[in-house]
Amino acid sequence: MIVGNLPAAFTSFVGRREEVAEVRRLLGAARLVTLTGAGGIGKTRLALEVAAASAKAFPGGVWLVDLASVHEPSAVADVAAAVLGVADVGTRPLVELLAAHLSGRRVLLVLDNCEHLVGACAQVAQQLLSATAELRILATSRETLQVTGEHVLAVAPLPEADAVELLRQRTAAVRPGFEVTEANRAGVARLCADLDGLPLAIELAASRLRAFSVEQVVERLEDRFGLLTAGSRTAQPHQRTLRAAIDWSWELCGHQERLLWSRLSVFVGSFTLEAAEGVCAGEGVEAWEVVDLLDRLVTKSLVEHPRGGEPPRYHLLESIRRYGWEHLVASGGAEQVRRCHRAFFLALAERLHQDWFGPGQAEILARLRAEHANLRAALEYGGNADGELAGAARCGLVERQSGAVQTGDRQARLALAGALLYHWVAGGFLGEGRRQLERALAAAPEPTAARARALVAAAYVAQLQLDLAAAERWLQEAEELSERLGEPAVRAHARGHRSVSALYGGRLEEALSYSEQAVAAHTALGDRFGELTWRCTLAISQVVARDPRALGTARQALADTEAHGERWARAHLLMVLGRRAWALGDQHEAKELTVSALKTLRGFADSIAVAKMVEQYAWITASDADHERAGRLLGTAHCLRQDTGITLAASSPQDEDYHARCEAEVLRALGPADYDRALKEGACIDGPDQAIACILAPHGAPERAAPRAATSGLTRREQQVAALVARGMTNRRIAAELVLSPRTVETHVDRILTKLGFSSRAQIAAWWATRSVPNP
Predict the structure, then answer these.
(1) pTM
(2) Which of 694, 610, 619, 688 is nearest to 656 (CA)?
């Protein structure tokens, strides 16, 4: 028989088996354990489950002290005494009477809902623990008690499988016969994901499924606080609706904490401390105060701070973010904060663009990739032009005469799209970069320096897609505009890009002439960055043209890039030198140079460039008569191209010819069956870094081949996409999750459907649920 006052459970406890075991383990080693987490995360239910499971270990009883309805700090001891049956009839302090009552008894005391009385709870807990040796306290609070010896376990949202099961069970209770089927599985997964795996939100959604379909509830989640209101009449007031749960947290915050919370809602995905300081400081919150306020919000379980990563990143659960955004809009501050958000990311993008030619290129791409969702939001912001300068100036990010931002919203967007050039071309976002630049150029036809720079950036993107006609149009306008505005550096870059177009078009004399002009122009301007960049292109042009000066220029360019720590242009030059060696029959040098190019690109996540280099290495390997490995390499290159939505035709006609020759030779040597097997083995790679690792491996085998029996030949990336489809995500949401373009995700989904022989996303979801493959 359980001694104590634990309430009988009305519903089943779903999931969290590992958390129950961990809390019980902590209670065996520590005397105070606090469960923290956002409102609605399930702290109370977990604590009650742990208490019930631990009852035998506490012969003195397990006692629940519910503090949700208590408002006076001095009443904490009163409530505990009433629960334990301790009469307050003497002159001694009540805490001393409690300690005397608990002395010598092995008791588990559950202090539930401590957050609004955290100081008083901490004081009572410390006094009782100091006076009794056998007492254990399990507390639930949205922030820690900060008592010496306290062990804290942050309760996380439910994982997908448990969230789906919770929804199924709670819905079946109000809608008998409800099951998760092939037809609704994707919608159920999406509903649970959109609700952040919050048990309270899921249970409230289940009550709505009494009268609505899963799809109808999903569609109405934009108004989640109006939708999720049908809670239990007997629940605590702050647990009856999703809004009430978060209202409770809002009321526990001070004025400045509320200001920061609402302003942080402008971030999409995660953010850094630097970004929070740059965007959220302003009226009511000084920049130096942000770090302490942010720490307080983390402590109150309103901002999540996952461990790992540098710099550290923070994020808000979607329901917390939307609640903050509602308050920000209601306060009239949304426009100003969005302007500050874009001004910050414009300044960041421009700074990183200026730092590109140097040793930190991989780190720059990693930072931009981490900020991709915020960058996209900044590009899509449609504020008013009149307020742009004033808002940005208030943020302290720009001077009143700082160029693009002062000319208004459209020019700021144009400047940002152009400053992200290397994010687009080297970070694996070529298609999205093209779309963003085209939209920004179309919306801002004014003849400005920002437009001239964006025109050059758009031309570069188009060149890499082998759309030379579009590149020619944009370069023509960029040259005319830069001449008109007196922007010689922009004109010099346009000259350089004309050399790229000429090179891709097979006009080698033009390519050499334009490259030389670009190098000379940047040298005259004292622009070391531009000079070295275009010297690499000049060397490439000379190599392709078989110019006798090629090796001398290449040596100088390689020495310059090595001296400056530059890697991206260096890798492309090494690749072209490797191709030259292969064409001359020097297999050893061709392999060494191509491998060196691949090593140089490690950590860049540049699938396009790595795909070209792996493809080239396949040709070299086939020429060495290692046909099986060449087949695997062709499969790897093909997989990388598909991951980015780029075809072989986006390289050059010469590459298509080399590929066809290599393919024919390998097919002839291996036969159709073994060739197909080699292609599939090569396709089992997880991104460019693993592709490089395959090249460096002794036998060129993928480090982690996907188990074909379980995945029907899906690549690692396809497995990731399939898992997210099974969670009910749209292509756009999957693109944001995996940092891909929606078009690329669409390509992946089509390939998955083809490989599995399915015709719908629901079939993918049902199939994935039956696989033994772990969720990537």
Answers:
(1) 0.74
(2) 619
